[in-house]
Design goal:
The protein is mostly beta strands. The chain contains five helices and 26 strands.
Length: 382
Amino acid sequence: MSCKLTRRSALGVIATSPFAVAALLEPACALEFAAPEPFDFDRLTADAEALARAPYRPASVPAAQTLDKIDFEQAIEIEYRPEQTIWADSETPIRLFHPHKFAREPVRIFLVDQGAAREVIYTADLFTFGPKAAFAQTLPHDVGFAGFRVLNPHRIGDWLAFQGASYFRSSGELEQYGLSARGIAIDTALPSPEEFPRFTEFFVERDGPSVNVYALLDGPSITGAYRIHCRKDGAVTTEVEARLFARTDIRRLGIAPLTSMFWYSELNRAGAPDWRPEVHDSDGLALWTGNGERLWRPLNNPNRVMTSSFSDRAPKGFGLLQRDRGFANYEDDGVFYERRPSVWVEPLGDWGEGAVQLVEIPTDAEIHDNIVAYWVAAKPVR
């Protein structure tokens, strides 16, 4: 593949530091950048606040008919070129996700260096396309991306991925993906439809062996600016600061939401049409209350939607955990449920009065996320 220096990338070279210039002229030369612009978290916060003052506008989807043709079979044939890996020689190499039928809305991705952000421009040269997906090579530059993932330093496997609405997740210590976290949850398990605000822009910054992810959230009821410091040292830790701005009154605002799957366990497998002893990404909700009490609530697959609330003040933590860790618990050598990560949430301040809510939704298969847990403040959101 021939390398080219476009007008966009030339503008990026002129205005960036020598380190950034060197990175741009490395073999990953299909990368194209928009002109640099000043960036910091306060600027992103101001953008989110201004956005909340205006009516919500759903994202327009460029080339929507083409993206709708990129179903599961086509999507797995579209791969990011290894030679185009961003920060390839660093401790946090990054690759981008191609948009597809299930992630059509464009996500803008910027690289941050020394207070300046440069947007990565979509080009088909960043990806390889198999026979079933060859038609997607004609997509325009404004189609954007679906998200990004952070690879291990040796580039075998990844440990962090942002893709779809405000979802993000990690493969954890055992290098196996499972449940997801979300930036926010809106009206979960209410009679009205649940709202799924999405991260529309990511600003990604290297921080030694860690990565800083700044994200702009937008949805019909809320906007937000997020700063997420992500590091892997055995376990993966993300420190999240969210500055949120409500467009409307919100009936149920879920903070630090976790989304998982529970089909059945050894306790309720009598009616399961499957030979495996257990099938779940998480088997219980753990709570560490404000008064120091430790609680464990096993998960269920109910016959109707169930919402359980655990009232508290200034909680110390909560999480969805996978406690059964033996292969014999699941006997599945394809998806390895015994390796699925747990996620534990600890407030970094006093969250006041409220409740941890657990939502359990009926499911008859392992392909559906049917478990949600989050914190709801007692004070209504106006």
